[in-house]
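Here is the promised in-class demo. Please do not try to memorize the tokens; focus on the logic of going from shape to residues.
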């Protein structure tokens, strides 16, 4: 941009990642609340483990300094139809691929452990205005069999399960679980 006297001023746009994923988390939190209130599932957002260093009690217990005690695993966990569920919410701005750098190595290890013990682990990926359930098994297989640093959008569309937005629920991810895991081993009550 040119100012009077031919002075050139350049602006550098700062990228703020502070609230990235907050809309997606809000929609998932709404769904979790709906599922709990209607007896469909018990799934909660896990708090991030922090250690508090400095608190100002004069202004209503305001935390000034804190640190992460340990790396967090995945964002959500709970139970649905007798199966342990754990998943993470990921928002992606790229229209062509999902960067694997959005998933930390300790999260990959955690997904492996959950699956090994018979639980269900997955990602909910918000991309191109749509929501996908991407199974942990597919994520691990892609990472193992590819040298790419991102999952192409075509792969997410092919292997992922489209999750619809529902006005009353939010992101209705239980329907995605039912599709992806074929009803997650629902067991009928014993008939006498």
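The designed amino acids, position by position:
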């Amino acid at each position: 941009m040119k100012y009077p006297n031919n002075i050139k001023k350049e602006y550098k746009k700062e990228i703020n990642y502070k609230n990235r994923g907050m809309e997606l988390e809000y929609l998932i939190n709404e769904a979790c609340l709906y599922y709990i209130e209607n007896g469909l599932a018990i799934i909660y957002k896990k708090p991030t483990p922090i250690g508090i260093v400095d608190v100002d009690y004069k202004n209503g217990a305001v935390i000034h300094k804190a640190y992460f005690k340990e790396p967090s695993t995945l964002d959500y966990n709970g139970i649905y139809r007798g199966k342990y569920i754990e998943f993470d919410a990921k928002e992606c701005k790229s229209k062509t691929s999902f960067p694997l750098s959005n998933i930390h190595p300790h999260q990959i290890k955690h997904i492996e452990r959950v699956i090994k013990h018979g639980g269900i682990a997955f990602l909910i990926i918000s991309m191109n205005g749509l929501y996908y359930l991407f199974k942990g098994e597919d994520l691990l297989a892609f990472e193992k069999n590819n040298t790419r640093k991102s999952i192409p959008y075509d792969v997410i569309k092919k292997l992922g399960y489209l999750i619809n937005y529902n006005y009353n629920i939010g992101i209705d991810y239980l329907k995605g679980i039912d599709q992806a895991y074929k009803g997650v081993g629902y067991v009928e009550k014993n008939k006498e």
